[in-house]
């Protein structure tokens, strides 16, 4: 019976990108939760394609391509094809990815990455990089604003030459779905999940316009659940706390962390 499932009786607000797959929601529902989805991020093209197009035209000059998100993979390869190229043009370029989902996304392009760091975080990529970095030329297609500055700083500090190019942009949606709005205003939520720093920022932006008090105050009885350290930092900044953090920085890891939270008696 569903009442015996670990997340039975819990209502979980899932913030995610608009149009993103709802596998995470399905996992939570299978564990007994009632899930309400609230897209807190919209993905679109960058303000200009020129820097990426130029980098693609000079692909053979790079030693490595670094991809840190599924959006980075999707937009980079879409633009590669638009320019009349295909993955064969990457023959001399090694590819490093951050994150299991990014690696899976790359495999849908029939490409296997040359390097995946042991932990699904950017810091791990620099620490465990398989080659000496001095003199290496690295192409890094990323989100136009608010990307991983730390990664670029660390690679540059170790002697690499990194070219950052905007491959996509993320922005805040214009509205909150009625079901999510109703649940927030009526305090019908036990948990809010965040899978990126930007979803935390944009959620707070949307919630500030909706709620009668600042989100950190209004949601003080709601469990704040984060996918990993970077997202947790943003939760700390905007909510003053994080209650659950995934040990493995994936959506499956976040599901397991919530099950542990719900069944440990520390609610």
TrEMBL record:
Keywords: Lyase, Methyltransferase, Porphyrin biosynthesis, Transferase
EC number, as in UniProt: 4.2.1.75
A single BP term in Gene Ontology: uroporphyrinogen III biosynthetic process
Transferase among keywords: yes
Reaction(s) the record says it catalyses: hydroxymethylbilane = uroporphyrinogen III + H2O
Enzyme class: lyase
Listed pathway(s): Porphyrin-containing compound metabolism; protoporphyrin-IX biosynthesis; coproporphyrinogen-III from 5-aminolevulinate: step 3/4
Source organism, top-level taxon: Bacteria
GO MF entries: methyltransferase activity; uroporphyrinogen-III synthase activity
Family annotation (InterPro entries): 4pyrrol_syn_uPrphyn_synt_sf, 4pyrrol_synth_uPrphyn_synth, UROS/Hem4
Function as written in the Swiss-Prot or TrEMBL entry: Catalyzes cyclization of the linear tetrapyrrole, hydroxymethylbilane, to the macrocyclic uroporphyrinogen III.
Family in the record: Belongs to the uroporphyrinogen-III synthase family.
PANTHER family given in the database record: UROPORPHYRINOGEN-III SYNTHASE, CHLOROPLASTIC
Protein name, per record: Uroporphyrinogen-III synthase
């Amino acid at each position: 019976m569903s009442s015996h499932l670990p997340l039975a009786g819990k209502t979980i607000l899932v913030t995610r990108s608009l149009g993103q797959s709802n596998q995470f929601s399905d996992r939570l529902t299978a564990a007994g939760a009632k899930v309400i989805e609230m897209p807190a991020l919209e993905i679109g093209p960058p303000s200009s394609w020129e820097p990426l197009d130029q980098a693609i035209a000079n692909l053979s000059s790079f030693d490595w391509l670094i991809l840190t998100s599924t959006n980075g993979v999707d937009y980079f390869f879409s633009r590669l094809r638009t320019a009349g190229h295909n993955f064969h043009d990457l023959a001399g370029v090694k590819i490093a990815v951050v994150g299991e989902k990014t690696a899976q996304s790359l495999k849908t392009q029939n490409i296997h990455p040359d390097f995946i760091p042991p932990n699904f975080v950017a810091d791990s990529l620099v620490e465990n990089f398989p080659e000496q970095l001095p003199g290496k030329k690295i192409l890094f297609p990323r989100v136009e604003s608010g990307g991983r500055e730390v990664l670029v700083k660390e690679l540059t500090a170790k002697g690499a030459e990194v070219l950052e190019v905007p491959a996509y942009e993320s922005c805040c949606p214009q509205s909150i779905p009625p079901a999510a709005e109703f649940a927030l205003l009526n305090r019908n939520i036990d948990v809010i999940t965040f899978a990126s720093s930007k979803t935390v920022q944009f959620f707070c932006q949307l919630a500030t316009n909706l709620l009668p008090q600042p989100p950190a105050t209004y949601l003080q009885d709601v469990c704040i659940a984060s996918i990993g350290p970077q997202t947790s930092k943003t939760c700390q900044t905007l909510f003053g706390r994080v209650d659950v953090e995934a040990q493995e920085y994936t959506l499956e890891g976040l599901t397991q962390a919530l099950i542990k939270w719900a069944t440990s008696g520390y609610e």
